[in-house]
Amino acid sequence: MAFISISSCLLIFFLLITLPDLSSAYLKLPLLRKNPYPPPPSEAISADSRRVSALHQRHGHFHTKLPITSAASSGSGQYLVSLHLGTPPQRLLLVADTGSDLTWVTCSACRRHCPSRATFFPRHSTTFSPYHCFDSSCKLVPHPKKHFPCNHTRLHSTCRYEYSYSDGSVTSGFFSHETTAFNSSSGKLVQFQHLSFGCGFKNSGRSVSGPSFNGANGVMGLGRGPISFSSQLGRQFGHTFSYCLMDYTLSPPPTSYLLIGGAQYGGAHKLSYTTLLINPFSPTFYYIGIENVFINNVKLHISPSVWAIDELGNGGTVVDSGTTLTFLTEPAYRIILAMVDRLVKLPKSVDPTLGFDLCFNVSSELTPNLPRLSFKLRGGSVYAPPPRNYFIDAADGVKCLALQPVAPSSGFSVIGNLMQQGYTFEFDKDRKRLGFSRSGCSVP
Ligand SMILES: *[C@@H]1O[C@H](CO)[C@@H](O)[C@H](O)[C@H]1NC(C)=O
Ligand SMILES: *[C@@H]1O[C@H](CO)[C@@H](O)[C@H](O)[C@H]1NC(C)=O
Ligand SMILES: *[C@@H]1O[C@H](CO)[C@@H](O)[C@H](O)[C@H]1NC(C)=O
């Protein structure tokens, strides 16, 4: 905790001295959905179960988790944002992730005759600069375990970082800063001259490399910590960001955006709000409080304590754009499963390779009648997404309840991006609240 409060002061300090005032503008970045290399369902399951087990081994403040591509059939995956980094600008695609703080890109030290594969080439940029290990900014990132003490009299002692995700994936390299550019709301190109980011020379683990990374070149950390993209740019544009994750079932899919700054997504659309809770053990995450769960408007008997964050920081529910499926704590998961099982009269489809506990054979139904799940949140607002946000087509004629269990008191619940689809979400860090609305997705 001390680490974070010190860090925030440092960050605010260097942002104050480096940024011009552009407070009236906001950033509008198109969000792309990509799923070009869907893993077979069995692979998706193992990834998700690995992720769940990783949730049980939380270490320090950086046990964030990352994009796991779920079954191809879910049609969902990661949401990517395009970023121009360096001088002259190099275009990169980053996974938009509210579940982590560090923004990083895959880096290559290549100078000449570089392969065209998409990575950032710092040697092709005149504005790239790694932080010195003695720089106050270097204290904002976790360092490799085998870390040489900083020798501040030496000129080339770069700031090394090592950032781990909860599934064991790791990115490491130089914590650096660069010029970045975006199209602002007014259509002008806005330069941001001091984006702190990780230049990742060594990235391993299935969620930051390989097919499940979906051709992304890095991660845009949108978490709550001081080094996140949204926190860094918040100084200039306001500590609010919003997005709408495209509804993949619509054809053609609407264009949706990540907005950084005070402008409200969807303009005049009214948002419902719930409080963003703080877990001092996990300052990265956006926690919300679930109070009750309803199925077809019937309240389930789940003790509110099931959803609480305990004194060790376990439990609670986070909103994460970088995780596909929704993970719910036991025993809530079992109770929901049992209720859905009771209400749906369709024949069950038992196929363990699909990776879900409850699947139905819907081949006889044109429009199967599926139960409606809703969550009553802290403050009284109700999140009632449509069934397609939690029933996915796992195979031909088979729909599965797209939820996964999390062991109580050792993990936490996650509202994944499938559950968020088709909604506008507004993360308002100043007022500590999360806004959401069913409308306004395609009209920022
Ligand atoms: C720090 O670097 C200087 C210059 O390279 C060197 O003389 C000095 O011995 C180094 N100090 C330590 C503690 O390694
Ligand atoms: C800004 O918009 C122009 C035209 O729409 C586009 O060509 C360019 O790539 C965009 N730049 C960024 C940084 O998104
Ligand atoms: C679903 O039920 C139909 C009969 O109504 C059957 O022909 C089909 O094989 C079943 N599909 C699965 C995946 O079990």
Explain this structure.
Belongs to the peptidase A1 family. GO terms for molecular function: aspartic-type endopeptidase activity. Pfam families: TAXi_C, TAXi_N. The active site is at 97, 320. The chain has helices at residues 2-18, 41-55, 229-237, 332-343, 417-420, and strands at 27-34, 78-85, 90-97, 104-106, 129-130, 160-164, 170-183, 189-204, 218-221, 240-244, 256-260, 272-275, 287-288, 290-295, 298-299, 317-319, 326-329, 359-361, 373-377, 382-383, 391-395, 398-401, 403-406, 413-415, 424-428, 433-437. By secondary structure, the protein is an alpha+beta fold. A six-stranded mixed β-barrel has the order 2-3-9-4-8-7. Residues 1-24 and 35-76 have low confidence and may be disordered. It binds 2-acetamido-2-deoxy-beta-D-glucopyranose (3 copies). One 2-acetamido-2-deoxy-beta-D-glucopyranose is lined by residues 151, 153-154. One 2-acetamido-2-deoxy-beta-D-glucopyranose binds next to loops.
Q: Any descriptors?
A:
single chain; 444 residues; alpha+beta; Cathepsin D, subunit A, domain 1; four-stranded antiparallel sheet; disordered N terminus; hydrolase; disulfide bond; signal
